[in-house]
């Protein structure tokens, strides 16, 4: 969370964390030494990065992080990343001007959608290791080719909640 907080230009005075698991919440509120190694290691990391008092419970049924909210949050983060990485391209495309021939995304036929997100109009075969990482939807959103953003998405896909995330991301990137 500190990396996200540091990357934002907004002042953040307090962070509140939410979980729909009462078991996890009880783990967080106790010393990590209480638990067996696997849980203790994860709780220890949570304790290093957050304060236990900042954690709260929300029932699964009342969890506000529904698909629409997740999509909106991902789009906001993606938009910030795109604005930082593709500032010149966005300015040109938003004013209906052609991209410079030196643009790294020119061959991808990019366009700005109605949400202000940069999307790829070309074929996936144009996205190689030199070009931005592209999600696999028909009208692809451009994910800047930064180690942090790629690492974040890959960690999400490789986590123990892989199927849950894949379902959420599929709905979020339509």
Explain the overall architecture.
The protein is of the alpha+beta class. It has two domains: 2-62, no CATH class; 67-172, no CATH class. Helix content is 44%, strand content 10%. The protein has seven helices and six strands, in the order αβααβααββββαα. The protein has helices spanning 2-7, 22-28, 37-49, 67-85, 87-94, 147-158, 162-172; strands at residues 17-19, 55-57, 110-112, 118-120, 133-134, 140-143. Strands 3-4-6-5 form a four-stranded antiparallel sheet. Strands 1-2 form a two-stranded parallel sheet. β3 (110-112) and β4 (118-120) form a beta hairpin. α4 (67-85) packs across α7 (162-172). Residues 133-138 and 156-174 have low confidence and may be disordered.
Keywords summarizing the entry:
single chain; 174 residues; alpha+beta; two-stranded parallel sheet; 10% strand
What does the overall shape look like? Answer: elongated
> Helical percent range?
40-55%
What's the gyration radius in Å?
19 Å
> What is the beta-strand fraction?
5-15%
Main β-sheet: number of strands, strand sense, barrel status? 4 strands, antiparallel
Tally the structural domains: 2
Give the spatial strand order of the biggest sheet.
3-4-6-5
Q: How are helices and strands ordered from N to C? A: HEHHEHHEEEEHH
